[in-house]
Amino acid sequence: MILVSANENEKKHSVNLFKKASEYVRPRKLLADSQYSAANLRETALEIGATPIIPYPKNQLVGVKGILRVDRKFRSHGPANFKTAYKKRTAIERVFSRLKNLASLSQHSLRGLSKVTFHAQLCIIIMLFTAEAALNTNKLS
Fold it and tell me: What sign results for the dihedral spanned by CA atoms 52, 54, 59, 64?
């Protein structure tokens, strides 16, 4: 875990976090939005053996074809396999949204990192149990 102040850009820590995570799992792909479009993150993913699926912003690699881009309406353009993989990124965005809104992680009244961490872990466990129950009862939404 890396603990930094909230006003610091998380892109600065993305390479170290990805390296740390890859010690525990062997990722095949690295899905990220265009905010994380940086050469060092792409190179790190390739070194680890993962394919970086990160769209380039419109000011990077102007005129180059065959790369992934996302327009203002959040439509992806580029190779079909990259577009298909990038669409799966929305699943994790839904999880973050539910944790923030339904589990009160955006506005909580807890003090201290250990209490917030414990609360977040409980929320994630409850979400996993709910998903498992939905699978077991064939009631997927």
Answer: positive
Residue-wise pLDDT tens digits, 25-66: 888 988 888 888 888 888 999 999 988 888 888 777 776 777
Q: Of 92, 96, 58, whose CA–CA distance to 77 is shortest?
A: 58
Domain spans, the chain: 10-87, 91-136
3-state SS, residue 124? helix
| Partner residues linked to 31 by β-bridges | 53
Helix (H) or strand (E) holding 121: helix 113-136
The label of the residue with tokens 């149990």 reads 129
DSSP 88: T
C-alpha distances in Å from residue 127, one per residue of 22, 58, 70: 24, 37, 30
> Of the candidates 95, 88, 80, 81, which has an alpha carbon nearest to the alpha carbon of residue 131?
95
